[in-house]
Amino acid sequence: IISFFPFLAILRKYNxxxxxxxxxxxxxxxxxxxxxGMAYGMLANIDPVYGLYSSFFPVIIYFFFGxxxxxxxx
Length: 74
Known about the structure:
Layout: H1 7-12, H2 19-43, H3 48-65
Helix pairs in contact: 2-3
Pfam families: Sulfate_transp
GO molecular function: secondary active sulfate transmembrane transporter activity
Domain SLC26A/SulP transporter: 19-74
């Protein structure tokens, strides 16, 4: 199961003292992805909300199946 869901191995070794720093970093990256996703939607000549979907859901999927702890798809 750990080879299929790499986030389990990462969570087992996670140090809780980094939680606040990781939350701030996640919020910073998330705030950066909002205008970027909206701009992608506008460039494709569709509603900006569809660009938000394309910047949110791939990151969630990559969290479960990706092998990197550093996730910023853009």
